[in-house]
Amino acid sequence: MQASRTAGIPFILKKAFLSACVALVLFSLMIGIRTEAGPDGQLTWWTRFGDLASIVGLVFGGSIIIELLRQWLGPIGAEKLVPAPVQRGLSLAGRFLGPALLVFTLLVPVIFYNQRYILDLAILVLTYVMLGWGLNVVVGLAGLLDLGYVAFYAVGAYSYALLATNFGWSFWVCLPLAGMLAAIWGVMLGFPVLRLRGDYLAIVTLAFGEIIRLVILNWQSLTGGPNGVSGIPRPTLFGIPLDNSDDGLAAKLGIDYSPTHRIVFLFYLILALALLTNWVTIRLRRLPIGRAWEALREDEVACRALGINTTTTKLTAFATGAMFGGFAGAFFATRQGFISPESFTFQESALVLAIVVLGGMGSQLGVALAALTMIGGFELFRGLETYRMLVFGMAMVLIMIWRPRGIIGHRAPTVYLTKAQAISSDLVKEGHG
Amino acid sequence: MDYFAQQLINGLVLGSIYGLIAIGYTMVYGIVGMINFAHGDIFMIGGFIALITFLLLVSLGLTAIPLILLLVLLVAMAVTALYGWTVERIAYRPLRHSFRLAPMLSAIGMSFVLTNYSQVAQGARVKPVPPIITGGYTLHEGAEGFAVQLSNMQIMVVLVTIVLLAMFTWLVSRTRLGRDMRACEQDQTMAALLGVDVDRTISMTFVIGAALASVAGMMYLLYYGQVDFNMGFVAGIKAFTAAVLGGIGSLPGAVLGGLAIGLIETFWSAYFSVEYKDVAAFSILIIVLIFMPTGLLGRPEVEKV
Q1: Model ipTM value
Q2: N or C: which terminus of chain B carries fewer CB neighbours within 10 A?
Q3: Chain B residues touching A400 at Cβ < 8 A
């Protein structure tokens, strides 16, 4: 081992040198020279050779480290069956981690009552947990790759926003309506794409998501176009507003009003919605329809041969996933008080999909952890707005290379003969829908 | 009628640009079987490289326009080809035997990386260039003072597309590399057994696709007089639509599809509404995939159990 490592040094240096040369060519024009449009429309340019040199140096150093790590760790073997001790540990952790996380989440508003920032962040994380669980029904369970999930989020948000601002309907009336409308759109998308699979399905859903966004952007008379919808009513506790008025919750309970009440209420609202999503998903997995989804993911042809109606199976998957997206959208609208098409770009779809994939596709706990990691990670780069998506993209590529099966890369089978044995996700198929 | 003829010319020019990008999609899909999501951003990078090279050459004191254009073309093709190679090497090659979703997600990540990299490196503002190729012909003087114009720029875009298409058709059908590509497209394992270097062939596919996309980027820069970091996404999807419409995996099909998409988009903008031109393009994508998934010149895909 020692010998092979010392013998490799010239090789490592040569490789690093080549990488640095490639980097030099790649970055010399794009980073070495900066262009900018002047005030009179004339282009000016200046050089940034310092930045260029440091980046090329970074590539040189980085490729040495990567090569050393690769030699040190050795090739990554593909394990098909998770070893028994690991499996026991995982199932133990799985058994306790979930409830522990849930208890902690329930206590978050109590612990961090005075820290508005943490509460806001927690609400954001829970929104993405809910979106992740919703998309998980489509991608993780039914194996239908959906790149336009944000469309349903947008439908839900705009349904609530428009119904509430135009007709003054309350949040609790609009919430089921938003879910239903999103589900209808899910079926409308589902019908034409029934025959498509894999990549083509992904690209059609992407196009669908973009169409919805462009229509919202351009249908000015209804949606306000790029200006969005503002003044969306805040949610009420079944009719009791959470404000400083005389019939507000604080006045009725006889306690001092604080704006935090509303934040705490929103927190528990999204937590309840997310848990509803989770509960429904877990229940559905045990019903024939859930079994049919998973069968569809594994093999559509076999599915048909066994007499499963693939049409209804796919449509229910799309509708269920879309409905949860619609709920999340309605919540988003009531929380923000203002929505515009900018919140529903393709990047959001990709983010939710990345959460599902990083979470191991199909694992509820994994999706929750992935949402926490992703949104938490995003917050770390809050100050560096432009670098945020750059880092997100790099993370997506690296995760795919390093752990394409996500953090929790194993599956507990739904049906088994004598004992449940977790298998590596390498053995299940996705995206073949 | 004059208005129609003018839109026809504009549509064909726009379609040529889409066709050049679509070739990259179609070749990669044919060989590796994946949608190279980052290809639209490679096109954008090509536009930026062309812009920077152009600025540098002008600042160095070169004045001969044809020489400048030739040099810009060569530099942009070379550097962008290296981008294509690097993207394949970093983001796709390690995932060659992974499950089918992995390269696609990796490609989406790479697309974000490239978009935001050029935003960070070159700023978010639109970069304009003055018109470089001027002049043209008036084909027909209309009655109400509307004249059908054919600019030299438009002639150049179409000519470059035709020349490049001819070159690459020759490359794919007559050379060793082209034979290797077609072999890899049919059966990678068999090709490897017969001594074809599959990794190298796939790399070359990405290199060629990126080089063509950079030409498209340069044409876009010259024709529209501007580039910005965000132009890759929509152009990429439209070019992908073109590739699917023409029949994915088919080189002439890609150009045919590009022309069709360019014409549809131009006529839609001219006669219906400019705001909804992207909606029209996306709708065509959906309609084509649903009703005609093999496209105009494609071969039907047989489902094997």
Answers
A1: 0.85
A2: C
A3: 91, 95, 98, 102-103, 105-106, 109
